[in-house]
């Protein structure tokens, strides 16, 4: 089974790129972030025509998450991260697909830091960590994937010295990610590629993609049931080089039945 995550940076504006990649890669399950579309403007028919059923949580102009499935039925569990009923950002959606619990997330950026946006990021991280602990306690196969907006180590960022004050790389952010992983999750990319320079995001400016001046901020965290079935993991880096593409590239894993 092939499962992917992709921050599309605007699902309607990047729809040709998304459909081209779906046809090329043929993932079984896909988590999308940054739809940047209200609920009623999501391109459901185009996704269906590509062979996928889908659930989504849209939001005008910002955020937005979706889960696609090519074969198996999607059973929605929730479309908000527990812990703050007043948080109206569309940043989390969770479903069961073919025995897997899939959490698709778009963690806040948090800049400028320090400040209210950074406080919101850390608060959201705390809620995610609490929810992740609950999921692990259920002792079922779980995948938490999406745009975490964190580079866990210096290996995950081009020229880390330039990022020390950024919300994606501040010590508090990296500590929050480590605290989450240390519950018992496996970082799929690092499990299979522990020492390799791998990026998932390249800015549009200063030819970042051409220079490979990237960041690894899109992650797969696997519960023990899933981690032991992990076969391969990678990044479809070439998609970032397509015309009118997202600044992120799709990230994927393959697990055996």
Task: Provide a brief overview of the structure.
The protein is of the alpha+beta class and 257 residues long. The chain has helices at 15-25, 44-49, 116-137, 171-181, 188-192, 208-211, 224-227, and strands at residues 2-7, 29-33, 53-57, 65-69, 74-78, 92-97, 100-106, 142-147, 186-187, 201-202, 214-215, 218-222, 230-235, 251-255.
Kindly describe this structure.
- This is Exodeoxyribonuclease III.
- Belongs to the DNA repair enzymes AP/ExoA family.
- Its EC number is 3.1.11.2.
- Its cofactor is Mn(2+); Mg(2+).
- Helix content is 25%, strand content 26%.
- The chain is α+β, with helices and mostly antiparallel strands and 257 residues long.
- The protein has one domain: Endonuclease/exonuclease/phosphatase (Deoxyribonuclease I, Chain A, 4-Layer Sandwich).
- Helix 3 runs parallel beside helix 4.
- The model has no long low-confidence stretch (mean pLDDT 98).
Instruction: Please give the domain count.
Output: 1
Note the run of SSEs as H and E: EHEHEEEEEHEHEHEHEEHEE
Number of helices: 7
User: What fraction strand?
Assistant: 25-35%
- Please tell me what the overall shape is: globular
Helix content: 10-25%
What is the third-level CATH name, the topology? Deoxyribonuclease I, Chain A
CATH top level is Alpha Beta
What is the CA-atom radius of gyration, in angstroms?
17 Å
Runs in which pLDDT lies below 50 for 5 or more consecutive residues are none
Overall mean pLDDT score?
98
Q: How many runs of DSSP E, i.e. beta strands?
A: 14
> Which oligomerization state do the chains in this entry correspond to?
single chain
> Which CATH architecture would you pick?
4-Layer Sandwich
Largest sheet: 6 strands, mixed
Class derived from helix and strand content: alpha+beta
For the largest sheet, list the strands in their spatial order: 3-4-2-1-14-13
User: At the fourth CATH level, what is the homologous superfamily?
Assistant: Endonuclease/exonuclease/phosphatase
GO molecular function: double-stranded DNA 3'-5' DNA exonuclease activity
InterPro entries: AP_endonuc_1, AP_endonuclease_F1_BS, AP_endonuclease_F1_CS, Endo/exonu/phosph_ase_sf, Endo/exonuclease/phosphatase, ExoIII-like
Enzyme class: hydrolase
EC number: 3.1.11.2
């Amino acid at each position: 089974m092939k499962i992917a995550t992709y921050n599309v940076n605007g699902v309607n504006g990047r729809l040709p790129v998304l459909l081209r990649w779906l046809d090329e890669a043929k993932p079984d399950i896909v988590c999308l972030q940054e739809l940047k579309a209200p609920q009623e403007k999501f391109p459901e028919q185009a996704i269906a025509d590509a062979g996928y059923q889908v659930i989504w949580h849209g939001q005008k102009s910002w955020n937005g998450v979706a889960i696609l499935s090519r074969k198996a039925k999607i059973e929605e569990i929730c479309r908000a991260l527990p812990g703050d009923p007043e948080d109206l950002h569309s940043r989390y959606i969770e479903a069961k697909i073919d025995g897997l619990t899939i959490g698709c997330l778009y963690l806040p950026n948090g800049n400028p830091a320090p400040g209210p946006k950074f406080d919101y990021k850390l608060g959201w991280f705390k809620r995610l960590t609490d929810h992740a602990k609950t999921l692990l306690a259920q002792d079922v196969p779980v995948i938490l994937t999406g745009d975490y907006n964190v580079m866990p180590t210096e290996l995950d960022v081009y020229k880390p010295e330039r990022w020390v004050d950024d919300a994606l790389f501040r010590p508090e952010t990296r500590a929050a990610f480590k605290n989450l992983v240390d519950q018992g999750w496996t970082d799929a990319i690092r499990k299979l590629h522990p020492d390799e320079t791998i990026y998932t995001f390249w800015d549009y400016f200063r030819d970042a993609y051409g220079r490979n001046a990237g960041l690894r901020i899109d992650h797969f965290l696997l519960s023990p049931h899933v981690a032991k079935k992990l076969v391969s993991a990678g990044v479809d880096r070439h998609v970032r080089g397509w015309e009118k593409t997202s600044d992120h590239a799709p990230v994927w894993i393959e697990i055996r039945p």
